[in-house]
Each structure stands twice: as structure tokens, then as C-alpha cells.
Design goal:
Layout (H helix, E strand, L loop, with lengths): L9 H9 L7 H11 L4 E4 L6 H15 L9 E6 L3 H14 L7 E4 L5 H9 L2 E6 L1 H9 L10 E4 L2 H6 L3 H9 L6 E6 L4 H10 L4 E4 L10 E7 L5 H11 L5 E4 L3 H13 L4 E4 L5 H12 L5 E4 L14 E4 L6 H8 L9 E7 L4 H11 L4 E2 L10 H10 L1 H4 L11 H24 L1
Parallel strand pairs: 1-6, 1-7, 2-4, 2-5, 3-4, 5-6, 8-13, 8-14, 9-11, 9-12, 10-11, 12-13
């Protein structure tokens, strides 16, 4: 099925052809007709399935069909995404799709100056892509108006909930006075996700292109049992012996990421960093070096699990198993995209076996285990002794990928109160 068959304008079809788009993916085949008819949508779709085009193309066409004069700070379509990387990627894709039509789009997220974003907002936007926290900051300053919002999209909605954005989402929704066509896309579903969808969607068309919480069939999964203190050696050995040229490695802690990059460089393997403490410009440079092949390895925390679009990425390594089984799905979603083959490799210590069981239950498949000679985990008695003698294990912290210090927490709390008060005042005036 071609894009021309969906009655998109010749200008949009021309841009899609230049992007290399030929046929609709399954999520696009199911979502686009419903979206074109104005229905709300609840979609279960993995990363790499073409969902950005599925929700953005119908919006673009409807804006083209009903052009309106832009007004200061006004937004016609709002797309919310959990991370900077994903917001930037969505905006870039939409810019490519709208190359030959008169539609303006901008992305706003943390890590860049408010002033430059305010200039973009001031002229009025057809499509705004934003992270919830940064959008609330601009709302407090009256830099953006959702008074005439026509379209609302939540991309990677499950990740937004995982990152604690539910209160931000409700504040944003509280400031919307219209009834926009709303689309919610998520790779995984939970009771909290179902509750949110019931709150914000009106008689949605439910779409699923794969079993819930499943991984792409194009990804081959494998597990290497290994002790924590041997993981770095194992990674270097696999990269060298198997001649892996492009490897995205996920760790749970920024400190682990920093140390691992240093160790890999000592082994002669060029590696770059991507985590929450790095400036947005530094993360962008790291990603560019990795995409261009200047760096063989990119070590990242969970902050990079969403939004990274690396064409043809062959290998994803879980150096640390994720804290949440659902995050496994998002991490390995970076490989095996667009029908290409990918490999998901996980290093699992004895302490992480329970997480592995949870992952296998979630994705409904048994992952093949490979025991590499020389890297056999220590026996159970040795593990118990290690756990009893290492106080560091007892004091192990929870997820710290995107730490929020007290001052930042207070700032966000003030923002929430300000937006909430503004909303109450607006209601009283009415």
C-alpha cells in the first residue's frame, strides 16, 4: 500500500519519496485511515515501526487542508515526548515530511536556552514537539498558548509515566480548553497506562501491530552469564573477536558509563558517552560520532533508550540488566528496525537472574544462553559470601539516570503550582 493511496497531497508524497518511504508499515496502514477521519487513537507499537509518520502525516495533511493564519504563541498541534532525543528526532522527521508545504514546526526541551525557544514560539506554530517539563516552563511564562489546540499526541507514553511525568501531563491537560483529536502511542501497557488513556481519549480506535510488550521479530536475543567484575573484559573480547563495528551499550549508572568508556579506550576501542549529566550539545556530538563510525561504541544510560534513531544499528548490549523489565523492550528497540536484522546481547550476573526471568515473561520467549569459556560465574556459595561482605551491595542505590536535585525538584514544584493557579484563575473568569 502506497502513501499516494491514502490521499496525501503530491507535495507530501514527494517529500516521503525523497525520505525513502515506499510502502506503509503495518502501524501506518492501521492508524492513518482512522487518524484521517478524526478518531482518537490508542496504539501499541514498538520503536522502529514507523509510528512517527503514522501520527504526524494525518496531522500535516489536515493542517494543509485547513490553513490558518498563525498568531503569537498559538499552537495547532502538540506532540509530547519523554526525552530530548526523541523530541528532536520527531521534529526532524516532520521537517522532512513538510519540505514542500507551508508548515512550521519546532521542538522545545531542556538543555537549550529558553530565549531561543521563546522566539520560535512567539511567531506561532503549526506543530510543536515538546518534553513535558520544558513545556510547563514556557506555559508559566505565557510563551505558549494551547487555547486553540486541534491535535494532541503522546509518543512513548509509557516512558513518560516511568519518568514520573504524570502530574506534568495532567497540568498540561488542565490548560487545554478545546477537545483536540488525541493519539496515544506506547510500546508497553500497564494499569496506570490504561487509566491515563481512559482519562484523555474519547472512544479511541485501538490499534496493535504486535502482541503487547513484544519485541521485534527481526531481533535475535542472547544472554551471557557473567560476574559483574568480568563484564568489561567480556565486552571487549566480544567486540574484538566478533569484529563488532557499531555497538550501543546500556548501563544503569552514570558512574558505570564513565568508567566503562575509559576502560574501553585503554583496550583501544573508541567509545563515547550519552547520559543525563552530559550537556545536550555533547550528547548530540557523541551520537553524530557514533552514527558516522568515528566511535565504535556508545555507552548510554536509560536516557538514550528512547528517541535514538540509528539506521542499521546491528548490536545492542545490556551491560547491566535494566531495573524494569519493560525497559528491556525499549533498549533493544534501537536495533532490528525497519525490517533489518539486529542482535540484543545481555550480560547477566547471578544477582540479575530474577530480572532476566521477568524479561522473558514479559516478552513471552526464552532467551538463548551462551556460556563463554573463562567467564563462568562464581558458584552460589561465593556469591553469598560476596553479598555478605560487600557493604556496597547493601547500599546499592536505585535508578539515578536522570537525577533531580532538591533545588530542581523545588523549581518544578513551583512551576506546577503556577500553572495550576493560572488554570484556576482562567476557570473563575469564565
Amino acid at each position: 500500500m502506497s502513501f499516494a493511496s491514502q490521499s496525501f497531497s503530491p507535495e507530501i508524497v514527494r517529500a516521503l519519496t525523497e525520505c525513502g518511504y515506499e510502502k506503509l508499515t503495518p502501524i501506518q496502514q492501521q492508524a492513518i485511515p482512522h487518524a484521517r477521519r478524526g478518531h482518537d487513537i490508542l496504539a501499541n507499537a514498538q520503536t522502529g515501526t514507523g509510528k512517527t509518520a503514522a501520527f504526524s502525516l494525518p496531522i500535516i495533511q489536515q493542517i494543509c487542508d485547513k490553513p490558518k493564519q498563525r498568531s503569537r504563541f498559538n499552537v495547532r498541534a502538540l506532540i509530547l515526548a519523554p526525552t530530548r532525543e526523541l523530541a528532536a528526532q520527531i521534529a526532524k522527521n516532520i521537517e522532512d515530511y513538510t519540505k514542500y508545504v507551508s508548515i512550521n514546526v519546532a521542538a522545545i526541551y531542556g538543555g537549550t536556552k529558553m530565549a531561543s525557544q521563546e522566539k520560535k514560539l512567539e511567531q506561532g506554530l503549526d506543530i510543536l514537539v515538546a518534553t513535558p517539563g520544558r513545556l510547563l516552563e514556557h506555559m508559566e511564562l505565557n510563551n505558549v498558548s494551547l487555547a486553540n489546540l486541534e491535535f494532541l499526541v503522546f509518543d512513548e507514553a509509557d516512558r513518560m509515566l516511568d519518568m514520573g511525568f504524570i502530574s506534568d501531563i495532567r497540568l498540561i491537560m488542565n490548560d487545554i480548553r478545546t477537545q483536540p483529536q488525541t493519539m496515544l502511542f506506547s510500546a508497553t501497557f500497564s494499569s496506570q497506562m490504561n487509566k491515563l488513556s481512559n482519562e484523555i481519549l474519547r472512544k479511541p480506535k485501538r490499534i496493535s501491530v504486535s502482541p503487547e510488550n513484544a519485541t521485534a521479530e527481526t531481533v535475535a536475543h542472547v544472554v551471557y552469564p557473567v560476574d559483574d567484575d568480568r563484564k568489561r573484559e567480556l565486552l571487549s573480547e566480544l567486540i574484538g573477536k566478533k569484529n563488532w563495528q557499531q555497538v550501543l551499550v546500556f548501563v544503569n549508572y552514570k558512574e558505570t558509563a564513565n568508567e566503562l568508556v575509559k576502560e574501553l579506550k585503554l583496550d583501544g576501542i573508541k567509545a563515547v558517552l550519552c547520559h543525563g549529566d552530559k550537556a545536550q550539545s555533547a550528547r548530540r556530538r557523541a551520537l553524530e560520532e557514533f552514527k558516522e563510525g568515528k566511535a565504535r561504541v556508545m555507552v548510554a544510560t536509560e536516557v538514550a533508550a528512547r528517541g535514538l534513531d540509528i539506521q542499521g544499528l546491528p548490536h545492542v548490549v545490556n551491560y547491566d540488566m535494566p531495573f524494569l523489565a519493560e525497559d528491556y523492550v525499549h533498549r533493544i528497540g534501537r536495533t532490528g528496525r525497519a525490517g533489518q536484522q539486529g542482535h540484543a546481547v545481555s550480560f547477566v550476573s547471578r544477582e540479575e537472574e530474577l530480572t532476566l526471568v521477568q524479561v522473558e515473561k514479559l516478552i513471552r520467549q526464552r532467551i538463548r544462553r551462551i556460556q563463554l569459556a573463562g567467564y563462568e560465574p562464581a558458584n552460589r556459595d561465593a556469591l553469598l559470601h560476596k553479598m555478605q561482605t560487600k557493604s556496597a551491595f547493601k547500599d546499592r542505590q536505585g535508578r539515578t539516570n536522570n537525577p533531580t536535585d532538591q533545588s530542581d525538584a523545588e523549581r518544578r514544584a513551583r512551576l506546577r503550582r503556577a500553572v495550576l493557579n493560572k488554570s484556576k484563575i482562567t476557570k473563575l473568569k469564565k
